[in-house]
From TrEMBL:
Protein name from the UniProt record: 1827_t:CDS:1
Signal peptide: none
InterPro entries given in the database record: GrpII_AminoAcid_Decarb, PyrdxlP-dep_de-COase, PyrdxlP-dep_Trfase, PyrdxlP-dep_Trfase_major
Keywords from the UniProt entry: Lyase, Pyridoxal phosphate
């Protein structure tokens, strides 16, 4: 075993896990007796705290008040409503505390965090200002120091070689980039600081010295952060300018006051300053760019590699372009633990790239989004004192810890080089919401979100931390909860490090189930996003299967105690899974042994599995959810080749976004016994059930098919298509014949009511292919859609001489990636006397539009019999389809909808670019290499068919209805009224 990897798995046996057991209430409230005692202490202390403040004050609520009917009624209502609320919360809240919950970045919050939060909550402290929470403000500052120290920032003000870090429980933005421009304006010859212009030199990012007044705009936009933060202290020392005077003068020049546009115009900045962030960014980043005025368009994605980590080579190219174009860069953001897959970006490479480009004249701030990954730095923090390690107790379950991968550890060690870091205690810090943290390597940077000067931070400063964020209020209880959890657990390898180490082992053990669950005998496949080592090494399929079998025998089906003594198994387990305790995976299914290639159908399968293992609505029963996971959708645009590669491993083809499953393992408890194995078996059972549903849904089988009847001189049949049903996912136009007597009666009905839609359907179930190949079938004819009652206009009608006009498949791989622009395409077909149209479906979702007996008036060109019989492509140029998509459902298509009987449109006619009438797309509407053979207008007849419901219906999709939520909540409120009016102590 290698020295590096031998340290990834440790076995402190029971002692570490025993300590962790005291940090939580427990999945079954095992520590309830301790919690009850703590709650009693909190309540008693709250009483004492209130009574010792001016104890001689008379009671404001006396016994007489408490005995009054009004008081008793109000208290009765409180107790009754509370009982009702507690019952509903226990029935309808997501059970984050359970090891069965493996969904979002959430789990049971630590007992110390809850106690600290609850204790302080009664004091209702507001840390937005010191007068709202003097003690809790100091505690928040202390929490900031603790987090700064954990990530490697200097917190010792006596250390003059490093800036002093600072942090708080909040969020913020920065205006650092434009501060040199503001100072330059303030020192122009007619401005208040003009006297510094001829002597105030600044160090450029390449190390050269230059007078600020002589710096180009490009040079000023690329001054290092620490150099800018030194300005105030330098101005004070070199020019005896007081901080107060500087602050008052600079107020009128700061970007916070005048806005970004004024400064950019004054200095001729024409290119937007860019913000680079990895493509795996959290959804809050575009929102932040919008709020701060940067604009989401200027928040540029950095492509990711197949591991979903930022591609440093791609970043290098982007920075080179910025250098060549002299386009400034605000910052580069590295994601230290992505939300979807726990991937850690190569921060060390970003640091090297900044060093490279600073020598060339380009610099930027580095921000680490370690909201998820920040606390994992505790796994590499030294322990103040080692806990005693005892021998294993063979009668007790044992949970090992798994250390960070060498790659991940190295990147976390580089956090100390970031200018700022977000760390969220309410994620991997196991603290209650809300508790987000923002840390600065140089504490003076916090002034960039205010109008105050970036002064040197002093330990003696008693600060109002609220001014350094954008909140109007911030609960002191959040900070105290975080601090208390830090104090009890510890931000080191035997504290949070041990907790996260156990979670890491548990997550990896869960990964082994995902990686080996599917076999040749299962109807489904499970593919983890993170490949097995054998896959990464490019081994053969036989060798990959051999590794899976090794995992099944030596890891999946072994107890933790046995596993820790199996060196070969341990050597492999250290290489498995993601960077930071998130398992991303997706399922697919096989039809007759062949893996499904349709992304849309794989998405449907994964969505249904997610719905079986999630609590999404108030009517969901928690006890029917033995496992809770989450899901997300990976964007092809954002993930590029990374997602294409994952689809390839799943056996999928197509450019559609991919719906995936995610399980986040934060609990240290699931590997006790065979609990994970039980959860995996529950998943396997559901995956098999849903895979069989998908197989049935996607396997062509005999069925009933509906057709719109068009024409009275010759009969045309337009199939009713459905994108998401294999039996009906074809756009099909047929020509056929009815017996003369039937045709005569049909014509009579059409003449009596020209608007009447007539439908025809096959009586005996068959496939479309069989129906076309036999060229005849027995049918039933209906006036309008069948109503399900079994009634029809005519039955037993022989349909003969069936001929295909157009047959186009509607599977996702046959569709275009974009809707038509500048027109709406139709097939135009028929006889010399009667022409009909059917909307060409090139992308889903869409609308089915069919109209018979349209009036064509050509201004140029002609439509001959040959062309009309085989069908041509007609572009209605007065309708721009892309701007109308997606269309509303049938019930809400307005009466004033543009496509209606009698409507007249401009039209261009093209020969069908796809000559084979039964060929599939994409590209069915591509007329880029040809010109229209005729132009004119088309007027719709009185018979127009419009449908979006049936065309876009997915029988396997069960969307959550918001109205159901509201109705159920109303029921709960009504139930609450009954609760509190009933006797409580019957």
């Amino acid at each position: 075993m290698s020295d590096v990897n031998s340290k990834r798995a440790t076995h402190n046996f029971n002692s570490q896990h025993n300590a962790i057991g005291a940090w939580f209430l427990g999945p079954q409230a095992e520590n309830f007796v301790y919690l009850q005692k703590i709650f009693n202490n909190v309540a008693e202390h709250q009483m004492e705290a209130r009574q010792k403040y001016f104890p001689d004050d008379l009671p404001f609520i006396n016994s007489e008040t408490q005995a009054s009917p009004e008081f008793q009624e109000s208290m009765k209502k409180l107790e009754g409503t509370l009982r009702c609320l507690m019952g509903h919360l226990s029935d309808h809240s997501v059970p984050f505390w359970s090891p069965r919950y493996m969904g979002h970045m959430n789990t049971d919050t630590s007992l110390p965090a809850n106690v600290g939060y609850l204790t302080t909550m009664f004091f209702n402290q507001n840390n937005v200002s010191a007068e709202g929470g003097p003690l809790t403000t100091l505690i928040e500052i202390e929490v900031g120091k603790q987090l700064c120290e954990m990530v490697g920032y200097n917190i010792d003000s006596a250390n003059k070689n490093e800036p002093v870090g600072w942090g708080h429980i909040t969020c913020g933005a920065r205006n650092l980039k434009f501060y040199p421009l503001s100072l330059r304006r303030a020192s122009d010859h007619t401005e208040p600081l003009h006297f510094i212009a001829d002597s105030f030199k600044v160090e450029l990012c390449d190390g050269t010295q230059k007078l600020l007044k002589d710096c180009s705009t490009w040079e000023m936009l690329n001054i290092k952060a620490q150099t800018i933060l030194d300005f105030t202290e330098r101005l004070s020392k070199e020019y005896n300018i007081s901080e107060q005077y500087l602050e008052s003068v600079m107020h009128n020049y700061l970007i916070q006051t005048v806005g970004k546009d004024v400064l950019k115009k004054h200095f001729g900045v024409t290119k937007p300053t860019l913000y680079f962030v990895g493509a795996t960014k959290h959804y809050s980043w575009p929102k932040a760019a919008a709020v701060t005025g940067i604009g989401s368009e200027n928040l540029r994605n950095i492509p990711v590699n197949n591991a979903a980590r930022m591609d440093p080579d791609a970043l290098d190219k982007l920075l080179q372009q910025c250098l060549e174009n002299q386009q400034a860069v605000y910052a580069v953001v590295t994601i230290m633990g992505s939300t979807e897959h726990g991937a850690v970006d190569p921060l060390s490479q970003v640091v090297k790239l900044r060093e490279k480009y600073e020598k060339l004249g380009l610099t930027f701030v580095i921000h680490a989004d370690a909201a998820w990954g920040g606390y994992f730095a505790s796994m590499i923090c030294k322990t103040p004192e080692d806990r005693a390690i005892h021998s294993p107790d063979p009668n007790m379950d044992y949970v090992p810890t798994l250390a960070l991968r060498p790659y991940t550890e190295n990147e976390l060690k580089h956090l100390k080089f970031c200018d700022s870091i977000t760390v969220d205690p309410h994620k991997s810090g196991y603290c209650p919401y809300p508790a987000g943290g923002l840390l600065y390597r140089d504490g003076r940077m916090k002034h960039m979100v205010t109008w105050t000067s970036p002064v040197v931070f002093q330990d003696s400063d008693y600060e109002c931390v609220g001014i350094y964020g954008i909140e109007g209020s911030k609960p002191g209880s959040s900070s105290v909860g975080v601090w208390f959890s830090h104090e009890i657990i510890g931000l080191h390898s035997n504290g949070y490090g041990a907790l996260l180490g156990e979670a890491t082992f548990t997550c990896t053990k869960m990964y082994t189930h995902w990686a080996t669950m599917s076999t040749d005998d299962t109807s489904f496949t499970v593919v983890p996003f993170n490949p097995l080592p054998a896959e990464l090494e490019g081994q053969t399929s036989e060798e990959i299967e051999a590794q899976k079998e090794f995992i099944r025998q030596r890891i999946v089906n072994r107890s933790n105690t046995d596993l820790i003594h199996d060196e070969d198994a341990l050597e492999l387990i250290k290489k498995l899974g993601s960077d930071l305790i998130i398992n991303t995976f997706a399922c697919n299914f096989r039809i007759d042994g062949k893996v499904n290639e349709n992304v849309i159908e794989a998405n449907s399968l994964n969505r249904r599995i997610y719905e079986r293992f999630s609590i999404r609505k108030i009517t969901d029963k928690m006890n029917t959810k033995p496992l809770i996971i989450t899901s997300t959708k990976l964007s092809q645009k954002a993930y590029g080749e990374c997602l294409t590669n994952f689809k390839r491993r799943l056996g999928l083809k197509g450019d559609q976004d991919l719906y995936i499953l995610v399980n986040v393992v934060m609990s240290p408890f699931p590997t006790v016994g065979n609990f994970i194995g039980e959860l995996a078996n529950e998943f396997k059972k559901v995956a098999e059930e849903e895979a069989k549903v998908s197989i049935k849904h996607n396997k062509s089988s005999p069925d009933h098919h509906g057709f719109i009847m068009q024409g009275t001189d010759s009969l045309y049949l337009v199939h009713l298509p459905m994108f998401y049903m294999e039996n009906h996912n074809h756009q099909l136009i047929l020509q056929a014949e009815l017996p003369p007597d039937v045709m005569e009666k049909y014509i009579e009905v059409r003449q009596q009511d020209p608007k009447q839609i007539m439908m025809l359907g096959n009586i005996e179930e068959t496939t479309l292919n069989d129906l076309m190949s036999k060229k005849e079938f027995k049918a039933e004819i209906y006036k309008g859609l069948p109503d399900g009652s079994g009634s029809y206009w005519m039955t037993g009608v022989p349909v003969k001489n069936v001929r295909v006009i157009k047959k186009r498949g509607l599977r996702p791989n046959y569709l275009d990636t974009h809707y038509p622009t500048g027109h709406m395409p139709f097939y135009l077909y028929g006889t010399e006397k009667q022409l009909h149209i059917d909307h060409l479906l090139v992308k889903a979702p869409n609308i089915h539009i069919s109209a018979d007996q349209v009036k064509l008036e050509l201004e140029s060109g002609t439509l001959d019999k040959t062309r009309s019989e085989i069908g041509v492509l007609a572009h209605i140029t007065s309708i721009n389809e892309i701007v109308m998509q997606p269309f509303k459902n049938n019930s809400t298509l307005e009466e004033g909808f543009i496509i209606k009987p009698g409507a007249k449109f401009d039209i261009e006619l093209y020969d069908d670019p796809v000559k084979d009438p039964e060929a599939n797309g994409p590209g069915l509407n591509d007329v880029s290499k040809t010109t229209p053979f005729a132009k004119g207008t088309i007027t719709l007849g009185s018979n127009v068919w419009l449908d979006t419901d049936m065309l876009n219906e997915d029988h396997l999709d069960h969307p959550v209805c918001a109205s159901q939520w509201r109705e159920r909540f109303a029921d709960l409120l009504s139930e609450h009224e009954r609760y509190w009016t009933c006797p409580l102590h019957s």
